[in-house]
Write a structure and sequence with these properties.
about 260 residues, alpha/beta, Rossmann fold, 7-stranded parallel sheet, 8 helices, 10 strands, binds 2-amino-2-deoxy-6-O-phosphono-alpha-D-glucopyranose
């Protein structure tokens, strides 16, 4: 895993946008895997700015989102459908018909998940999967204990995730306790993975992901087995990494060589 440590969240957004821009430029029909949460907001703002100011285009791209809450329809303000339309789709030239999420209101949740996985395969697989990380090490909604080979499926959320998500809802009782989530096995099939994390609250999870054992205890640690993963983190999120000096050194060397965002 490449670890890029940057001074702050703005720098994380810029460097992550460089990675996405490179993926968009590499194919007429790029397939992006995108994420929700507060972590990618700066990145989406930066991509929208590049679209406005420099014509960065998403035309021809397909987007597959990581997850959706069970019980929230696309028009619910806190649904992930709504999130991605609000924060990215409406700001750029993405075709809304090419933005795919599992339906949290489906009557047969397992069938919905299986057909979502099939639609990723039909699109040729994901070129670049963007991820945030939960403070307990989850990616998408793969909570600790998730099978490292899991596929897209209905999952239950842990009390700590429900607590973390409660800030987006007016009362705790409204926070969904179930979701449809891409599995760790599904995510691992993406050709590239770009994980972003900012803030001290993520420092333990980032250290476990990068330097801990590969274990379902920290679902994000499965990314150690992925051949093309870049973790772009700010100083606060990197604070508990033991080998941070080496990551900084490697990054300096890479820049000196003039390597592109994805080398
Ligand atoms: C939710 C999402 C994850 C996201 C995580 C972290 O659990 N399912 O995909 O990475 O939140 O969110 P934030 O970036 O707001 O800390």
């Amino acid at each position: 895993m490449d670890v890029v440590i940057l001074e702050n969240a703005e720098a994380v957004a810029r460097v992550a946008a460089d990675h996405i821009e490179q993926v968009l430029g590499a194919s007429a029909h790029p397939v992006l895997g995108l994420a929700t949460g507060s972590s990618p907001l700066g990145l989406y703002g930066e991509l929208a700015r590049r679209h406005r100011d420099f014509g960065l285009s998403f035309a021809g791209a397909d987007v597959f989102m990581l997850d959706e809450y069970v019980g929230l329809g696309a028009d619910h303000e806190q649904s992930y459908h709504h999130f991605i339309h609000e924060n990215l789709v409406s700001q750029v030239d993405l075709d809304p018909a090419r933005v795919h999420l599992p339906d949290g209101l489906a009557t047969d949740l397992a069938a919905e998940c299986a057909s979502f996985d099939a639609s990723i395969r039909d699109a040729g697989g994901v070129d670049c999967q963007l991820l945030g990380i939960g403070s307990n090490g989850h990616i998408a909604f793969n909570e600790p204990g998730s099978s490292l080979a899991s596929r897209t499926r209905p999952v239950w959320l842990t009390p700590s995730t429900i607590r973390d998500n409660a800030r987006f809802f007016s009362s705790r009782s409204e926070v969904p306790v179930r979701a449809l989530s891409q599995g760790l096995g599904t995510i691992m099939e993406a050709r590239r993975v770009l994980l972003i994390a900012t803030g001290a609250k993520k420092a333990d999870a980032v250290a476990q992901m990068v330097e801990g054992p590969v274990s379902a205890r920290c679902p994000a640690s499965v990314l150690q087995l992925h051949p093309h993963t870049v973790a772009v983190v700010d100083e606060d999120a990197a604070a508990k990494l033991e080998l941070s000096d080496f990551y900084r050194y490697s990054r300096r060397m890479q820049l000196q060589d003039g390597a592109p965002a994805w080398s």
